[in-house]
Specification:
22 strands; 11 helices; about 400 residues; alpha+beta; 7-stranded mixed β-sheet
Length: about 400
């Protein structure tokens, strides 16, 4: 059985994120850990979590953490985290097994919810044996670097449901909907992220002089966060080709294509196919296919771009381990001379718009970063008195919801 987590009090914490269906060629089918890793649920099926039970930890410290099983046998160490580029959910852990003195070993991917956390002993637990792991397919970093360009790529197989566009909102054969298409032009007033069917969707509110504000659904947050075509942020000029449809009985406006800061990005092609579907990209002659995932090591250490201005680099990521979400980036703003005496600053993950081209782009200006709260030496203080919510408020963005463990 898993040992209890030692947080501010000895409270049992566990991981119950729903695993993404994955291809057997790339990941194992882990044992059912729901009996050991399930936290009490409310009558409505949602987890009973309040801010006092949240456990914020440093991603850098999690890397290298020992993995043990219920018999206290060492299975390996945590090598990396596979993160949903948009929502910040940690979908899988890359684990190194069989290493001796830090050398050798085999890398495998394990769904995040299969792990139990024991911060008292500084290790995590996994219901498996060394023999089980030997039979699991290997995580190949070279295949990861391939991105999502081919059907057989690691990322496409690991996240195949991200590319499923069966629920595409554009009714392709509806002449009425096609005729209702129009343009919305103005500036980006706000950016929000909403959970739709277990996937995070990005919506903007557009402000146009002399007209009511208009809310427009852009598309999956990972698609925008993994796309080099466009950089978006609040107050940016925007011109969108939209169409109207209904969702759950509610009228919504959806973007077909957009020009933001004179950068163009299509969300649907002329046949109504979502551009994040690989077959749509292939038939349009576009060789680029956005990747829904990013590794922890692909974000840490990267330079930070604040609305076109360089403003430091990412020193660490702060994760909430009971729900498996990246809550904050810890950023060194490079404010002090040669970095001497510089203090790292906390920035909500939701402020990050994309992490490509060797940079991390933020919807914030440099002064917002340099005046942000410093990263506390004891991250447990973030859960006390809802301190983490206050930091989100400073960036005028909605606090991350840690109650939903999809």
């Amino acid at each position: 059985m898993h040992k209890p987590i030692n947080t501010l009090s000895s409270a049992l914490m566990s991981l119950t994120l729903a695993a993404i269906p994955v291809g057997a060629a790339y990941t194992m089918d882990p044992p059912d850990s729901s009996r050991d890793n399930r936290k009490a649920m409310r009558e409505d099926g949602q987890p009973s979590i309040d801010s006092k039970n949240l456990v914020f930890v440093s991603g850098a410290k999690v890397r290298g953490m020992t993995v043990k099983n219920g018999e206290d046998k060492t299975l390996g160490t945590i090598d990396d985290l596979i993160i949903d580029r948009g929502s910040g959910r940690i979908r899988h852990i890359v684990m190194k097994s069989g290493a001796t003195m830090g050398l050798g070993g085999k890398l495998v991917t394990v769904p995040y919810q299969q792990f139990g956390w024991d911060s008292a002993d500084k290790h995590v637990t996994l219901n498996a044996t060394p023999e089980d792991i030997k039979a699991w397919p290997e995580f190949n970093k070279d295949r990861w670097v391939e991105g999502a360009r081919t059907d057989e790529s690691f990322i496409r197989t690991l996240g195949r449901d991200y590319y499923d566009t069966a629920s595409s909102p554009w009714p392709v054969d509806s002449q009425t909907e096609r005729e209702s298409a129009r343009r919305v032009k103005g500036t980006v007033k706000s950016i929000s992220r909403q959970d739709v069917g277990g996937r995070e969707e990005l919506t903007v509110v557009i402000s146009t002089p002399g007209s009511p504000d208009q809310e427009v659904v852009l598309g999956p947050s990972w698609y925008l966060g993994g796309n080099n075509s466009i950089s978006f942020y609040r107050d940016a000029p925007i011109d969108i080709d939209v169409f109207h449809t209904t969702r759950d009985g509610r009228a919504v406006t959806v973007a077909r294509s957009a020009s933001i800061n004179s950068q163009n990005l299509a969300f649907y092609d002329e046949h109504g196919r979502a551009r994040w579907a690989p077959n749509s990209a292939a038939t349009s002659g576009d060789p680029f296919v956005a990747a829904p995932f990013v590794l922890f090591t692909d974000v840490k250490g990267k330079p930070v771009d604040c609305r076109g201005e360089t403003c430091g680099k990412v020193k660490d990521l702060v994760m909430e381990c009971t729900t498996g979400r990246i809550a904050f980036l810890s950023i060194d703003p490079d404010k002090a001379f040669l970095g001497i005496g510089d203090q790292n600053r906390l920035v909500p993950w939701s402020v990050m718009t994309r992490s490509l081209d060797g940079k991390v782009h933020l919807d914030a200006n440099k002064s917002m970063i340099t005046s942000a709260p410093t990263t506390p030496s004891d991250l447990k203080t973030l859960s006390g008195n809802d301190e983490y919510k206050r930091i989100y408020g400073l960036f005028d963005t909605q606090p991350m919801s840690f109650g939903n463990r999809r």
